[in-house]
Amino acid sequence: QVQLVESGGGLVQAGGSLRLSCAASGLFFSSRVIGWFRQAPGNERVFVGVIWRVSSTDYADSVEGRFTISRDNAKNTLYLQMNSLQPEDTAVYYCAAVQPGRITRSTMNQPALWTYWGQGTQVTISS
To answer: Which residues of the chain have pLDDT under 70?
Structure first.
């Protein structure tokens, strides 16, 4: 049974930082493409970033330069370091996993193509 469990969310002031974690079990973590999405109230789930098997990364324009994704395959854990947070970053953050080959750089931002999802962790940024 595949499980993705996010943690590390919370309330911070604008300009602050948070690091989210996503602990994975039940899947061959190192062979999966892993990513982060977020969903604000009343909005669709949107792509934040992805880390590929070879640990290269891609990010949404809105977070490029502020957010960093990393993975520790020995710990089966994905991380999202978020700096210079702004109120518009407020959302529930989800980690997701997918088999290599199911997505490309052209389709990575489509939630429907990702196979496994965590339950989400709330991030709230106060102004």
So the answer is: none
